[in-house]
Specification:
about 5% strand, homodimer, mainly alpha, DNA-binding, about 140 residues, about 60% helix
DNA sequence: ATAACTGTCCTAGTGTCATAGGACAGAGGG
DNA sequence: CCCTCTGTCCTATGACACTAGGACAGTTAT
């Protein structure tokens, strides 16, 4: 598990951590129940204040991605997203529409757009398979 | 052309305008060369300061979506996105990955995700056809 | 020229965000 | 108990984002 902060990206450090944990969860790099790096060591490793990491973890907990047990540590949740199905669908549609509008604006035609999506889905699936075999084999 | 600002969304007003103009351009509601509402009247209509609209338009110009001619007005560009193809592809991939990670996190399975995308693409296409016929017929 | 319109720049106020350090509370090993 | 680890809360500070009003410059019609 390796995080990297891009200090010149303009994106807040704590949000970068949030995104990277989410991505790690999606790719299987982090598995349900697994412990995340504890706040202080990770903060030191990334040259951030502990509260910056704490804020990221708090955000992740509010999203249902992780659970934090004071005194023990933070762990990846079993069941993500406590939201109702219609809400989840609505959120996802917003995200999709944003990508579609960007594709149009970048003049990427529909077929190429779909191809790109399939490509990324495949890439993710491959990552997941790789992590499966690492930890089960 | 109708804009609506959601004041309790937390999203800055000028960004809401940016998104709505981009969406209007993608859906064909706004066509290349067409004039956008001028800054002051639109600001008054939306109960915003002129500079809030001006900032939105400036952002859109920097993105290549519109062109503003001082003294004349703002107009939708012919050719969006002055960026090189690899850059555009990279930007789009970031957006797509974000949607994919969200789909995973919301526990929306791959096929349903693709279905949703197709659905939104179709919806956009229908809008575009509707605007075609309105303005050509 | 005047007036009414267009967008733009400058500057200031206000608030929120991101980050940081100190102190506190629960868990577990000597 | 004592110490060290865990996460959490409170507070403060610095920076930046958003908004706002005044003054300016280009365009067009009268």
């Amino acid at each position: 598990m390796l995080f990297r902060i891009n200090f010149k990206s303009g994106k807040p450090a704590y949000l970068q951590v949030v995104d990277q944990v989410k991505a790690a969860a999606a790719s299987g790099e982090l598995r349900p129940g697994e412990a995340l790096p504890s706040i202080r060591p990770l903060a030191e490793e990334l040259h951030l204040n502990r509260n910056t990491i704490a804020k990221a973890y708090a955000e992740l907990e509010s999203l249902g991605v992780i659970e934090s047990l004071p005194g023990k540590g933070c762990f990846l949740s079993q069941n993500h997203s406590p939201l109702r199905k219609e809400i989840r669908r609505k959120l996802l549609i917003e995200e999709i529409d944003q990508a579609i509008v960007m594709a149009h604006h970048l003049q990427v035609p529909g077929p190429e757009f779909l191809e790109l999506i399939q490509e990324r889905l495949d890439a993710l699936e491959e990552k997941r398979r790789a992590h499966e075999s690492h930890k089960e084999g």
